[in-house]
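Per your request, structure below.
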C-alpha cells in the first residue's frame, strides 16, 4: 500500500471497531468485538456463516458412530443503530436481523437424509445499553428470537427453531497498553427458551460466552484469537421429548483465529473468523466459518 494512501486511511475518521450484533444464538457469530460499544450511527450488517460437522457426540463426550455429514450455510442481513445520550453518558442500541439458511444432514448408520432451507428466526434487540471510558467498555442488553421461520416437527421443511427465545446479555472490553492496542472482550448471555409450537417440547436454557483477545496493527487491523463456550443449564422437557434425550445437556467450546479490517474511507469494516469445536457433549462437533461486512450508513455530526 502506498504511504500516501495509508496516511489518508489513518487520518480519516474510522467507523467503530465494534460489529453490530445480528443475534448470537449461533456460536461463533461474535468474536473479538463481542463486548464493545459501537460509535453513534446507523449500520447495515451482512454476515455469512458456514458450519460443518462430521462427528456427533453423546452426553459423555464420546463419538456416536452414525457417519454424520452436516453442512449448514446461513446469511444474515440486519440493521443496527446506536445513539449517544450525552447527559446520561450512555449509549442506546437497537437492532433487527433476518436470516436465510440451508442445512443438509446425512447419516450412514442408520441411513437418513434431511435437506432444509428457508427463512430463519428473526432476531430483535429492542434494548441495549453501553458505557465507555478510555480503557473500559460495558454493554448490557435484551433481545429475542421470534419463530418467524417455518418449522415442521419431525419433518423436512423449514429451518426455524419453532419457539420464542429471550436473551439477556452482559459484557465488556478492556483496551490495554499506552496506545490501547491490546484488547480483551467478552459477552455472556442467558437464553431462556419457550415451548415449541405444535409440539410439547421445551429446549433447556443455555449460558454462553463469546469473545476474544486481539492486537491492533496500524489502527485499522485487529488480529487475534476468538472463542466461545456453551453450557445447557436446564434439561429439555415435554411429553413429546424422546426418552433417549432426557437429561442430556449440551456443552461445547470453540477456539480459532480472527482478522478484522476497518476501511475508514468507505466507512465499513470486514471480519473473517474460523473456530473449531472441542469438548462437545450431546451435540455435533465441527467447525464454523464467518465472514461479515458492516457499513456505517449514517453518523451524527460531531
Amino acid at each position: 500500500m502506498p504511504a500516501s494512501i495509508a496516511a489518508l486511511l489513518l487520518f480519516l475518521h474510522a467507523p467503530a471497531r465494534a460489529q453490530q450484533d445480528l443475534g448470537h444464538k449461533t456460536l461463533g457469530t461474535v468474536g473479538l468485538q463481542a463486548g464493545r460499544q459501537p460509535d453513534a450511527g446507523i449500520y447495515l450488517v451482512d454476515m455469512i456463516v458456514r458450519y460443518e460437522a462430521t462427528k456427533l457426540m453423546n452426553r459423555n463426550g464420546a463419538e456416536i458412530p452414525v457417519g454424520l455429514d452436516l453442512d449448514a450455510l446461513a446469511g444474515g442481513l440486519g440493521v443496527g443503530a446506536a445513539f449517544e445520550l450525552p447527559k446520561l453518558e450512555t449509549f442506546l442500541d437497537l437492532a433487527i436481523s433476518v436470516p436465510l439458511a440451508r442445512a443438509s444432514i446425512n447419516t450412514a448408520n442408520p441411513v437418513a437424509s434431511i435437506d432444509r432451507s428457508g427463512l430463519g428466526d428473526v432476531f430483535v434487540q429492542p434494548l441495549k445499553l453501553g458505557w465507555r471510558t478510555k480503557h473500559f467498555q460495558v454493554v448490557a442488553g435484551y433481545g429475542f428470537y421470534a419463530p418467524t421461520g417455518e418449522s415442521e416437527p419431525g419433518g423436512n421443511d423449514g429451518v426455524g427453531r419453532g419457539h420464542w427465545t429471550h436473551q439477556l446479555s452482559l459484557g465488556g472490553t478492556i483496551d490495554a497498553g499506552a496506545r490501547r492496542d491490546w484488547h480483551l472482550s467478552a459477552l455472556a448471555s442467558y437464553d431462556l427458551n419457550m415451548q415449541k409450537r405444535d409440539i410439547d417440547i421445551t429446549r433447556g436454557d443455555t449460558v454462553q460466552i463469546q469473545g476474544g483477545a486481539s492486537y491492533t496493527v496500524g489502527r485499522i487491523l485487529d488480529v487475534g484469537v476468538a472463542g466461545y463456550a456453551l453450557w445447557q443449564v436446564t434439561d429439555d422437557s415435554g411429553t413429546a421429548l424422546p426418552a433417549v434425550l432426557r437429561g442430556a445437556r449440551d456443552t461445547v467450546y470453540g477456539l480459532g483465529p480472527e482478522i478484522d479490517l476497518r476501511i475508514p474511507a468507505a466507512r465499513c469494516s470486514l471480519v473473517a473468523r474460523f473456530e473449531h469445536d472441542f469438548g462437545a457433549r450431546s451435540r455435533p462437533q465441527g467447525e464454523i466459518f464467518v465472514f461479515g461486512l458492516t457499513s456505517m450508513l449514517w453518523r451524527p455530526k460531531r
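Confidence is low (pLDDT under 50) at residues 1-16.

Regards,
D.
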